[in-house]
Amino acid sequence: WMVVLNEAGDAAGQISMMPDTEPLLSLIDEAADRLMEEAESVILEIDLGEEIAERVIAAAERHGVPVYAIVGNLSVIERRPDLLFRTECIICNAVEFGKLFSADLRKNSPEEMVSFLQGIRHTDLPSVIVTLGARGSVTYDRRTGVYGIVPAEEVRVVDTSGAGDAFLSGVVMGRNHRITLTESAAIGTHLAALAIGTKNSAVPKNDDVHHLLRCFIREPAGIV
Question: Domains of the chain: which residue ranges?
Fold first, then answer.
């Protein structure tokens, strides 16, 4: 896999080749049910492949385990949008979310993104978190019908490696602790900020994570 960066260090393009996923499919068939029995939630990159996504989601459904979906090149979702609607929540950026609905959302403000989400709430859309870079993120909780806006945190950029993974992990961790979707996105935002301000793809320490959870349980984030 090769990524091309521009002068600002942002991804300008990429070249990738999908590996052979047959061994992974065999592992899923062998161990999925056993793993689901012990899992609180599943994070799934849907564009790993249609068969992988189908089998993982089916196993999660059998055991009542929520699936949090992230997307890649949208190749699978464009063919099988029904897979997306079988997840608990999709987490993506404005470009990816816009492609799902043939809309250009790259310059939308958080308030404009909330308005867009309100306009498509009649669909079978699962809960959604749309990240907007320096403008923060917006959330839509399908179960409660609540929309939220989470501002970005100011941070001195040291290394952005792992920031997306930190954000995603914070979101799912918050949901596992029965914290609202907007509050969970705020947790993810803070963990991403910690990762951005640290050399290499470092993850926050456990003490920082547990302190953060306690703070958000006592002090809920703002809801709109």
Answer: 129-224
